[in-house]
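lol forgot to send this yesterday, sorry. struct tokens for the thing we talked abt
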């Protein structure tokens, strides 16, 4: 089994709606994202699982939609709570739209240096 990972950082503000009954105050984070691809077969003739350049460009494009933004006003987070879990799932779904194959096997989003959430698509 092969595994390839790409990472990127971004800065965004957010607040959770209905956090213990009230909206959290708006606050910012320096987020980190890791997108992981897993698979048995390598693309031929290059012999790689995914093209690092291609997946990094896709990740850059996805992150550009939320970098230096208030997540609560960026769709889908204008309706969906911008938790790390939901941000991870959204990044995974955006990747699938841009690169249907191979799909990410895991997307992890760190809100802080010691706190992260992962999304593993079925």
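and heres what i got for the seq, position by position
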């Amino acid at each position: 089994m092969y595994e390839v990972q790409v990472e990127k950082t971004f800065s965004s503000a957010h607040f959770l709606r209905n956090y213990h009954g009230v909206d959290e105050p708006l606050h910012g984070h320096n987020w980190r994202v890791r997108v992981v691809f897993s698979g048995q077969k390598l693309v031929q003739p290059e012999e790689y699982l995914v093209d690092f350049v291609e997946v990094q460009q896709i990740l850059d494009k996805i992150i550009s939609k939320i970098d230096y933004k208030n997540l609560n006003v960026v769709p889908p987070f204008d309706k969906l709570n911008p938790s790390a879990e939901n941000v991870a799932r959204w990044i995974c779904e955006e990747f699938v739209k841009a690169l249907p194959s191979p799909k990410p096997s895991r997307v992890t989003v760190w809100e802080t240096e010691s706190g992260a959430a992962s999304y593993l698509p079925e």
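The first strand starts at residue 2 and ends at 14. anyway ping me if u want another try
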